[in-house]
Amino acid sequence: MGLSLAMLPHQGNFNKQDLAEGGIEVAFEPKDSQNAINYAESRIYTDAELKNYTEEELKNYKVKHAIPDLEELEKGPWPSFVSDAKQGALHRKKLADDRMLIDRDVIEDMLGQLQVSFDEGETHWKHGGIVGVFGYGGGVIGRYSDLPEKYPSIAHFHTVRVAQPSSKFYDSNFLRTMCDMWEYRGSGLMNLHGSTGDMVLLGTTTEQLEPIFFELTHKMQVDIGGSGSNLRTPECCIGKARCEWSCYDTQALCYELTQYYQDELHRPAFPYKFKFKFDGCPIGCVASIARSDMSFIGTWRDDIRIDQEAVKAYIAGEVVPAGGGHTGRDWGKFDIKKEVLDLCPTKCMWMENGELKIDNAECNRCMHCICVMPKALRPGLDTGVTILCGAKAPILEGAQMATLIVPFMKAEPPYDNIKEFIEKVWEWWMEEGKNRERLGELMQRSTLPTFLEVLELPAMPQYVKEPRSNPYILWKEEDVPGGWDRDIKEYRARHKR
Amino acid sequence: MEELQKVIVEFAETSKKTKFYFKDIEKAVQKVLPDAKMRDIKKACTALINDGTLIYFSTGSSTMYGLKGRGMTEDPE
Ligand code: HEM
Ligand code: HEM
Ligand code: SF4
Ligand code: SF4
């Protein structure tokens, strides 16, 4: 569609050159130039309208439906969505009629219907429909109440998914503009962020969908995300923007694949949903290994970099371990044997003449030692990605973590090697996958050896956790000398009955 | 391309079902045109969406196609 995603903070018109002059190097720049969003110009509500009730009024406020079970939820120690929703409801109650385009009572009715669901143990949301914006097969999810007489303002209560910028860099101009727009054209309820990473706008009518889409894409330069049987909004960790451990530029790869696969994002033709997520290192801040059909995790294939002086400083207690991550309690003197060497999962580290040694061939890049002594240890310099496939939540069978498929691949623009891999996987899944079958389920159904064959990959030692638990090697007739037939006489000559 | 579109519309008009997964369409097309490629079938579907002949139906988790005005109302079933 050529629509740009707001992948960089909205701090004005800038490009790679401007940034370079300011001494900032970026690996990529957006495909379309980015407009500055200025809330002072784009705002809909005055300050008085935004803060239109007092704490006292909120305390005394009663939702028009009885919601005893929901109010019970407010009593716990955590922030409650019920309290948030009440604030929204009171705010709408006090706005003037012409200051919102959908029904005033949406939030109150939503709460009322939820109480009914609690009473009956059943949902009253109807699932799905023909809502969407023109030409897009995803990003808008139709939701309708099946109790429209009782809760008329939520007869339509559609969800809009808004693509998050890479690593969720927002600025307040963007967020305020978004909030005003959504208060005006929707319920004001939103969810930051949904599990795909999108900003989720909850509750609007069919008539508002096209205007909202226009505001988002043309004014705020942000696209709507994925839903349905298509590529979902790709998501990445903060990566090189702030994290020294990032083994590839997660934002650049996320942005590139989002732009490159626009058709897959907006025009559903997959058997079911498909998610990419990008972690810069095995710490896995976006948990790609559990949350995506194709998980990209940064790694290195050379040696962990060791600064022996810094190792000594940790041992001498001159540097706080784990970057101060455990300072809330006295753990005693730092003990490198107990806290690092003994906890290395492959036991590939040892001390020798006061120096830390690592047998890098045995290291499985778990990051533990690096986390404990970040000043002394760093990932290697020959970096790239590990690709894993097939994680999913439990709908059929149980939840499943991703399975290692590519132990190491370089991850550099224009990422042709990665695109080639992705397309091979999609080709197979689209051909062989049944309707509503996730990649992980297809891998399980057709076996890992088949998947590897499709990808033209040999089974690799890195796949094996322990003998017999993951059988990658199944013999085929052509691999066995003599095939499946044997000369029984010849066999009996050697093996008596 | 036009031929693909024609076959898709014929299938959507005559099938007993009114909503189809992409795969159902692909299979139906390949029955008539065995050499039709998946990518081209998708392009033909997209063209039919863009001219308003086909519409999407989405539950949020999966998506189907249908012929505008046949069988599908705006409300879900
Ligand atoms: C239709 C009938 C059967 C089917 C589909 C079947 C299937 C299987 C399968 C899939 C395995 C696992 C193989 C592996 O993990 O490598 C297995 C193992 C085994 N089956 Fe069967 N089996 C059948 C009948 C039998 C019968 C009748 C016996 C014994 C009288 C038997 C004894 C065993 C034993 C002892 C093992 C374990 C072998 C090992 O762990 O090395 N099976 N079977
Ligand atoms: C007093 C009689 C028996 C004793 C003490 C005995 C003992 C054992 C032991 C210690 C194992 C190894 C278990 C393991 O690796 O975890 C085993 C495995 C096995 N036994 Fe027995 N067994 C007896 C009788 C039988 C009989 C009568 C049969 C078959 C009719 C049998 C079939 C098997 C099979 C197929 C295995 C392999 C199971 C597998 O690999 O999963 N055993 N037995
Ligand atoms: S996943 Fe690794 S690289 Fe990414 S933010 Fe977390 S620690 Fe840093
Ligand atoms: S990264 Fe993990 S496996 Fe590798 S040396 Fe450090 S603790 Fe051991």
Please specify the SSE layout and strand pairing.
The complex is a heterodimer of chains A (497) and B (77).
Chain A: H1 16-21, H2 39-42, H3 47-50, H4 55-60, H5 68-73, H6 81-94, H7 106-120, E1 125-127, E2 140-141, E3 143-145, E4 159-162, H8 172-185, E5 189-192, E6 199-202, H9 209-219, E7 235-236, H10 250-260, H11 262-266, E8 276-279, H12 288-291, E9 294-300, E10 305-306, H13 308-315, H14 336-339, E11 349-352, E12 355-358, H15 368-372, E13 377-378, E14 383-389, E15 403-409, H16 416-432, H17 439-446, H18 448-455, H19 488-494
Parallel strand pairs in A: 7-8, 8-9
Antiparallel strand pairs in A: 1-3, 2-4, 4-6, 5-6, 9-14, 10-13, 11-12, 14-15
Chain B: H1 2-14, H2 22-32, H3 38-50, E1 54-58, E2 63-67
Helix pairs in contact in B: 1-2, 1-3
Structure explained in plain terms:
The complex is a heterodimer of chains A (497) and B (77). In chain A, helix 6 packs antiparallel against helix 7 (106-120) and helix 8 (172-185) packs antiparallel against helix 9. By secondary structure, chain A is α+β, with helices and mostly antiparallel strands. In chain A, 32% of the residues lie in helices and 12% in strands. In chain A, the strands form 5 sheets. Chain A has a 5-stranded mixed β-sheet with strand order 7-8-9-14-15. A 4-stranded antiparallel β-sheet of chain A has the order 2-4-6-5, with no helix packed on it. In chain A, strands 1-3 form a two-stranded antiparallel ribbon. Chain A folds into 3 domains: 38-219, Alpha-Beta Plaits, CATH 3.30.70.2500; 235-301 and 383-479, Sulfite Reductase Hemoprotein, domain 1 (2-Layer Sandwich), CATH 3.30.413.10; 305-378, Alpha-Beta Plaits. Chain A has helices spanning 16-21, 39-42, 47-50, 55-60, 68-73, 81-94, 106-120, 172-185, 209-219, 250-260, 262-266, 288-291, 308-315, 336-339, 368-372, 416-432, 439-446, 448-455, 488-494; strands at 125-127, 140-141, 143-145, 159-162, 189-192, 199-202, 235-236, 276-279, 294-300, 305-306, 349-352, 355-358, 377-378, 383-389, 403-409. With 77 residues, chain B is of the alpha+beta class. Chain B has a single domain, classed as Arc Repressor Mutant, subunit A, CATH 1.10.10. Chain B contains 3 helices and 2 strands. Chain B has a two-stranded antiparallel ribbon with strand order 1-2. In chain B, strand 1 (54-58) and strand 2 form a beta hairpin. In chain B, helix 1 (2-14) packs across helix 3. The radius of gyration of chain B is 12 Å and the shape is globular. The model of chain B has no long low-confidence stretch (mean pLDDT 88). The A-B interface holds A 126-132, 135-138, 140-144, 159, 206, 227-230, 263, 267-273, 430-431, 434-436 and B 21-24, 38, 42, 45-46, 49-50, 55-63, 66, 72-76. Bound molecules: protoporphyrin IX containing FE (2 copies) and iron/sulfur cluster (SF4) (2 copies). Residues 344-346, 348-349, 358, 363-370 of chain A line the site of one iron/sulfur cluster.
